[in-house]
From TrEMBL:
Positions of the Amidase domain: 18-442
A GO MF term: catalytic activity
Lineage of the species this protein comes from: Bacteria, Pseudomonadati, Pseudomonadota, Alphaproteobacteria, Acetobacterales
Source organism, top-level taxon: Bacteria
Protein name per UniProt: Amidase
Coiled-coil region(s): none
Pfam families cross-referenced by the UniProt entry: Amidase
Gene source species: Dankookia rubra
């Protein structure tokens, strides 16, 4: 994304050429991947032509000008259908545009349309009974991760330079790791959620799936910041995230939790993770094994809150048209109505104390926590299809075991590619920091990518 935008700014490539290259790639390959829901071909070409005319007279319309993008089909654009991956909203046409889309527009990003996703963003694998499953570009039989399935697969397949995803239990970082790209979940409240389909009032996050940490830094700098339309958005000033990418991690302190994140991890994942830690140590970081407080309650609370809040959001449709949901989703939502109110209130009340405990016991004396993003090798679509076989439920839920805790704790977290397993599928490294320490998280991820090439490897398709 940054390379494309910078080349356009220097006059080395036309915006129209970038868009046409994206369109050609989609036309040739999306029949296999099934990442695209709506392609706004003519609108994208018109936007590119406007930018090329501006560039011809010496004007560069923003730091993302020239960069073709597509976004998860849950970001509202006035007058355009947003299905949210569902049958219920197959004709929903919002009247207002999401704040993040407005900010991307103002920065010159070229919006080419919308992308496949899990139904109402409620599964970690990317299955979709209404639009069809999205397929992993590295091997079409395997999961993309979810719920931002089209975003991860499309960036990996080089259909476009960047995509918005959303992350309530890992839905940016999971497609990032399963598809071999970079995904950033910022601090809870760092980015406005106005005009975005809600899943969970207290755990939803907006963020990018991109190729590099530098891409993520520039993207976040555009979309972050206070928004009057979202009263939960944080007032903290937005720093220059890209300027913080010094490539230097000398003396940076990284904690590796001895328990939970590596429990039951597959050998190829551990091998790639340990190699990534060794690379960071060689670059000057200090890596230390620590004993973390139990995160099982944290992971359970995350699942609980999203289920209860999701059930509240969907109450009307669940009463009026429950048959329009996929089987696994209606089961999940009905389960939310059975959770006692005191347990939900307990989850909300415990969030602050558990965050303070985690910071005090795990991050005191450290800058970051490092984990594998996914403990297991990438599963196949068949292995995680719970509508076809409910016995797949444990494997389905295990996908998000390492990402969910950071949603409940609200911490900034990134996933970057760090290798491949024995079947040739990607492995991800997850780095998490203190609240609003995105600059530190991005600096470490960028430094790692400066001395590795995992993020530059492309699937053959």
């Amino acid at each position: 994304m940054t390379e494309a935008a910078d080349a356009f700014a220097r006059g080395e490539v036309a915006a129209e050429a970038l868009v046409r290259a994206s369109l050609a790639r989609i036309a040739a390959q999306d029949g296999k991947v099934n990442a695209v829901v709506r392609l706004d071909r003519e609108a994208a070409l018109e936007a590119a032509a406007v930018q090329d005319k501006a560039r011809a007279v010496g004007t560069v319309p923003g730091p993302l000008a020239g960069a073709p993008m597509m976004h998860k089909d849950m970001y509202y654009r006035a007058g355009k259908v947003s299905t949210c991956g569902s049958a219920i909203r197959k004709e929903f046409t919002p009247k207002a545009t999401a704040t993040v889309l407005q900010r991307l527009d103002a920065a010159g990003a070229i919006d080419m349309g919308t992308l496949n996703m899990a139904e109402f963003a409620q599964n970690p694998t990317g299955h979709n009974a209404h639009h069809g499953d999205c397929h992993n570009p590295w091997n079409l039989d395997y999961c993309t991760g979810g719920s931002s399935s089209g975003s991860g697969a499309g960036v990996a397949a080089r259909f476009f330079t960047a995509a918005l995803g959303s992350d309530t239990g890992g839905s940016i970082r999971l497609p990032a790791t399963l598809c071999g790209v970079t995904g950033l979940k910022a601090t809870q409240t760092r980015v406005s959620r106005a005009g975005v389909m809600p899943l969970s009032f207290s755990a939803d996050n907006v963020g990018p799936l991109v190729r590099t940490a530098r891409d993520a830094a520039r993207f976040l700098g555009v979309i972050a910041g206070r928004d009057p339309k979202d009263p939960t958005s944080a007032p903290e000033p937005v720093p220059d995230y890209e300027a913080a990418l010094t490539g230097d991690v000398q003396g940076m302190r990284i904690a590796v939790c001895e328990s939970y994140f590596l429990d039951g991890a597959d050998a190829p994942v551990v091998t790639a993770f340990e190699a990534a830690l060794a690379t960071l140590k060689s670059a000057g970081a200090e890596v230390t094994r620590v004993k973390a407080p139990s995160l099982r309650a944290v992971a359970a609370y995350t699942a609980l809150v999203s289920r209860v809040e999701g059930a509240a959001i969907h109450a009307h449709w669940m009463r009026e048209q429950p048959g329009d949901y996929a089987t696994h989703l209606s089961a999940r939502l009905f389960g939310g109505y059975a959770v006692p109110a005191h347990l939900y209130v307990e989850e909300l009340a415990r969030r602050g104390p558990l965050l303070r405990e985690f910071v005090a016991e795990t991050l005191t004396g450290f800058d970051l926590v490092a984990t594998p993003t996914l403990r297991t090798r990438v599963p196949t679509l068949a292995e995680t299809d719970i509508d076809a076989d409910p016995a797949n439920w444990s494997r389905f839920m295990a996908v998000s075991a390492n990402t969910r805790p950071f949603n409940y704790l609200g911490l900034p977290t990134i996933s970057v590619p760090c290798g491949f397993d024995d079947r040739g599928l990607p492995v991800g490294l997850q780095l998490a920091g203190r609240p609003f320490a995105e600059s530190t998280v991005l600096r470490a991820a960028d430094a790692y990518q400066q001395v590795t090439d995992w993020h530059r490897r492309a699937p053959a398709l």
